[in-house]
Design brief:
This protein is mainly β. It has helices at about 20, 170-180; strands at about 1-5, 10-15, 25-35, 40-50, 50-60, 65-70, 75-80, 95-100, 110-115, 120-125, 125-130, 145, 160-165, 190-195, 215, 220. The longest helix has 8 residues, at about 170-180. The protein is globular and about 75 Å long.
Length: about 240
């Protein structure tokens, strides 16, 4: 299953756990079905209400560019110029991923990737690569959200399905490995199958207890056509014996 975020106030909240607020480095990976482009739609954010966003992965233009921003002094901000989520992605499942590592080389602090059901993830090109510097801003009261940002004014029109936050900078090969088989990897701080518990608490399958603390306005929707999430049954394999000599 997945969750549909199709109004400005729709959001899934996850409270203020440090394992979601503060990792550096980190990798975020998820599947999204864009119904329509909504400029400013936050797929994921760490926010201090009502106006401050500490971290975000969002749609940054009406044409479908993407931004990853980390609150520092000055901020880290990478914005694509391809644009990855142009209108041609409407009505399709798309795999998105980003990495952040403040210790990486200039131009590699953030990486943004996109894949599809028929093509492996590949890095996008950028119009802005502001590397930033200094410590990552951190406040223990900041709230982690999927589907919205500060003030709950950054909703969109899309379904979000399998989602993971890993406290490591994964290689592209590792990201591609997760793309078609979403699962718990080493250093995974949160792994969600959004919608699997319908509109109940969204369960974190990583074992870290980073479950949702509340849902607002969302609906349950169909999931991406991937492999079965919790194992599979290959069916009857036959009962054969060796032929008599």
């Amino acid at each position: 299953m997945s969750l549909l975020f199709d109004a400005s106030g729709d959001v899934a909240d996850f409270g203020s756990p440090a394992t979601l607020r503060t990792p550096d480095p980190f990798t975020i990976m998820f599947w999204v079905y864009q119904v329509a482009i909504v400029n400013g739609f936050h797929y994921w954010s760490v926010v201090q209400d009502t106006a401050t966003t500490r971290r975000r992965f969002r749609v940054s233009s009406a044409g479908g560019n993407l931004q990853v921003l980390i609150d520092r002094a000055p901020d880290t901000s990478y914005i694509t110029n391809d644009p990855p989520m142009a209108a041609g992605r409407n009505g399709l499942w798309t795999f998105l991923a980003c990495t952040y590592n403040s210790a990486a080389a200039a131009g590699q602090i953030v990486n943004i990737y996109l894949g599809t059901l028929s093509s492996v993830a590949a890095e996008r090109t950028y119009g802005t690569t502001t590397n930033g510097s200094g410590a990552n801003t951190n406040n223990a009261a900041d709230v982690v959200r999927i589907g919205n940002g500060a003030g709950n004014n950054d909703g969109g029109n899309a379904r979000i399905g399998p989602f993971a936050l890993v406290a490591a900078e994964l290689s592209l090969a590792q990201i591609i490995g997760w793309q078609f088989r979403p699962r718990v990897l080493a250093s995974t701080n949160q792994f969600l199958r959004l919608g699997y518990r319908e509109l109940g608490q969204q369960f974190d399958w990583s074992g870290n207890g980073n479950h949702s603390t509340g849902l607002t306005g969302v609906a349950v929707a169909a999931e991406p056509p991937l492999v079965a999430p919790f194992g599979f049954d290959v069916g009857w394999m036959g009962a054969f014996t060796a032929a008599a000599p």
